[in-house]
């Protein structure tokens, strides 16, 4: 039995076990039919032209982990941003860990998706927002069909959340291979501001496949800063589907730091449904060995007088493969749009590969839109200049690559995250440089 058959056969038992109302049951049943029809994506699809899941799908994944595991904070402390006080929502093998978490209902809701899907007090928000931004592609539909646990965040209007929210998913390797499908719903009401940090981390070398879906709604004049730290081990696969629907005068920013994992696919989709909206998509990718990272972005400009800024940097070594497929759509009504997209890449190995495909679809005539990509190697004259001043070759290369990434790092608004990412980059480049960017 292949993984598709295993999942479809498991669905009925899953539905019988979970306690949700008819509204959610209907959504799940429709979603599993879509997945049954479409199956897992293949390279025959344009959006997956450069990324194959064949090697990932060969493992015999446990769809529902058979036993719960516990871990101690000291064993995983290094994966938290522990320099600052934060709310924390932690999951171990897909199950909520109360002793590692710090949730709240004090003026805001930072809690569990399972609670939101089952308790009447959340019903209005769930019915108005759940599955309203997510598309009906095969992997998102698969997640929707098995949606049960994840993070539910609701920030009422006029709230400045005083501390960031950390979302952490740990896989302990209890099974030889595990599949996880977290579902997150984040609703930020008018004039509110929140910062969120997300991380998926495997604690063993056992295979793990995570198919995650996050829906984010930024209402009028809301601000959301979202940080994804992806630095998993070589047997972990992450397919991250994030959908952000913005309303008038809102600002949403997503920083994606992709440093680890066997295969990482980031599907990041912004929908601008109001005027004077700002969308920011930033990313740094540094990979080597046989790692594969694929960024697939969409910014859909629907209303006039809006902006979007995309800036992705990639450094690829050894036999690694990078993919960037960025799409900007400007509808006819979206006049005065200002959209910028850049993808810059450095190959530090003759065996590394990058496939980049920036796209613009513009149906308006009064816009300012630009896109571009570069693929190259380190500047030889800059290297010579630094070597001539006594800087060793390894450190000179690292300094140039730091400078290459710096404009993305400079937009990070949480200093502790900037410091953490700087240290990870130094470790990836194998140097110890005594300054912070």
TrEMBL record:
Source superkingdom: Bacteria
Residue ranges constituting the SUF system FeS cluster assembly SufBD core domain according to the UniProt record: 174-404
Pfam family, one: SUFBD_core
Domain SUF system FeS cluster assembly SufBD N-terminal: 21-167
A biological process term (GO) from this entry: iron-sulfur cluster assembly
InterPro entries linked: Fe-S_cluster_assembly_SufBD, SUF_FeS_clus_asmbl_SufBD_core, SUF_FeS_clus_asmbl_SufBD_sf, SUF_FeS_clus_asmbl_SufD, SufBD_N
Similarity annotation: Belongs to the iron-sulfur cluster assembly SufBD family.
Name this protein carries in UniProt: Fe-S cluster assembly protein SufD
